[in-house]
Amino acid sequence: MTTTRAVHARSLVDPDAFWAEQARRIDWQTPCEQVLDYSRPPFARWFVGGRTNLCHNAVDRHLAKRAEQPALVHVSTETDQRRSYSYRELHAEVNRMAAVLLALGVRQGDRVLIYMPMIPEAVFAMLACTRIGAVHSVVFGGFASVSLAARIDDARPRVVVSADAGSRGGKVVPYKPLLDEALRLAQNPPEKVLLVDRGLAPMERTPGRDEDYLAWRERVGGTQVPCEWLESSAPSYILYTSGTTGKPKGVQRDTGGYAVALATSMEYIFCGKPGDTMFCTSDIGWVVGHSYIVYGPLLAGMTTVLYEGTPVRPDAGILWQLVEQYRVNVMFSAPTAIRVLKKQDPAWLTRYDLSSLRMLFLAGEPLDEPTASWIQSAIGKPVVDNYWQTETGWPIIALQHGIEALPAKLGSPGLPVYGYDVRIVDEQTGAECAPGQKGVVAIEGPLPPGCMSTVWGDDERFVKTYWSGFPDRQRYSTFDWGVRDEDGYLFILGRTDDVLNVAGHRLGTREIEESIASHPAVAEVAVVGIADPLKGQVALAVCILRDAGRAATPQDRMALEGEIMQTVDRQLGAVARPSRVVFVGALPKTRSGKLLRRAIQAVAEGRDPGDLTTIEDPSALAQFREALQG
Ligand code: AMP
């Protein structure tokens, strides 16, 4: 029997043979001459000389066998619309979009920036770009002008594709004014803007620059646009990483390596088969959306569900209603969405027929044990944590149920995935850590196919940022803390850049958060390290309670704070005890659900919280300030 560990070992011992085999999962116009070129580390080139096309593999290739199968199902609970596109219809729409982009002057290698809500045209635009060899850069629809302008200036797109508006929680969010402002701020604005008018918000149009997609769609009619066969390492897209200050980092993805990596992951990790349905609740603006709303399921000949809406509208059963209605087999979400559901009536979880669903995959942030066990028992399906980053494009650590059904360990995403030579190393020396000893999660080069090939336009930054963190040798740093147990299962303990140092003791915020989250009153918690004149840093905990009434009076708050401190004392030791616990109704997060730790930290330390363009709910910081004073 093949085991996960054996497949992993083989992928590292003989990567050429392993990946040559996986490369057969996709169509190549010209096969590669060399599987891997690592003559210029850390720059890896996969399937050198091979020519392929992502759009061909995601769409055209399936026309022979599954032209009438739904390829893309769009559901918007925001606009109350549902629409399904078969592979044949998707092919036609992508051709139209590709013809429009060509008509607007986009050529192979040109960038196209996509600033769109979760509507089918966004997916058409992505696929149309890869069809003609243009490089897309999707910017999350909720980003505001300054972030958008920075990305425009870095990617220098020939065309921006956008829409009048998005909608969130029933509230229309006009995009066009944000885009206009971004174009005004940008040093290098594009000549053309292609606009999808959803009829949600009025748009002012700039003559000569702003073009109407529907009018162009009519004009190009049924034009067929051939796929451009690209050398495997030609860039397919740029995706900017969120969260850090300064100039955004454009993660550059290749073409052939990405297609092979995703196709392989669809079988080995996600157990998705042609004809199955996948529902990933992420957004196309994030890497999870790129890989597992758009490319992964389509490469595998599956039906993908594109959902515009929240997990609690019109009610907290909506995700499960969609599972029932579309007979979803593979679902992918984020712990944050599950924690939102945790605060709702659990009856919603058993109201619908979930018999089609095999597994629920969760990624993007640490999956805390209470949330994992809660959702697993609530829906009665295996929950598969998987750990990865924008940079890698697909999971680094996960249980690989398509290879072997290994038991999960709560709190661990599982074992290293084939292709990744994951090491836990000492931050100072680079020496490998023993089981049980905490270190940095690092990856020995070369990174497997599909991972970032460089930082867009800045090879030096790629090397400096990711490959220069250890004194002994060049190695990729994930900037995450981790630990390996005796069985080889890995546990992620938070970002190395969010480390707490309390009186010389290094503590992971994640460890403290897990401990606090085990208190029955707590729904969600964030822990940050804040400056302390005596101990260097102390931990501050910001909690959302399951029942806000538990902290109604100052006496209640004090009592609960004491209980929580005791919980931490008991589980981790007094050294990890937060110096303060404050209670809020919402945590400051990005729209992708990432905690804005630095902003929390800054406010707690009385500093300017800095760039807040990505914040989901600006009132969360004000609430936090108030709670701190209270
Ligand atoms: P992003 O590039 O925005 O997807 O963020 C990647 C980071 O999110 C990683 O470096 C981790 O810090 C965190 N992350 C993603 N998935 C997981 C997971 N399954 N468990 C723990 N942390 C995760």
TrEMBL record:
The keyword Nucleotide-binding is annotated on this UniProt entry: yes
Record-linked InterPro entries: ACAS_N, AMP-bd_C, AMP-bd_C_sf, AMP-binding_CS, AMP-dep_synth/lig_dom, ANL_N_sf, Propion_PrpE
Residue stretches making up the AMP-binding enzyme C-terminal domain: 511-594
GO BP term (any one): propionate catabolic process, 2-methylcitrate cycle
Alphabetized UniProt keyword annotations: ATP-binding, Ligase, Nucleotide-binding
Domain called Acetyl-coenzyme A synthetase N-terminal: residue spans: 5-58
Transmembrane segments: none
Short name of one Pfam family: AMP-binding
Statement: the UniProt record of this protein carries the keyword NADP: no
Domain AMP-dependent synthetase/ligase, chain residue ranges per copy: 60-446
An example molecular function term from Gene Ontology annotations: propionate-CoA ligase activity
Xref: NCBIfam families: PRK00174.1, PRK10524.1, propion_prpE
PANTHER family per UniProt: ACYL-COA SYNTHETASE (PTHR43347), ACYL-COA SYNTHETASE SHORT-CHAIN FAMILY MEMBER 3, MITOCHONDRIAL (PTHR43347:SF3)
Family: Belongs to the ATP-dependent AMP-binding enzyme family.
The protein's name: Propionate--CoA ligase
Species of the source: Cupriavidus cauae
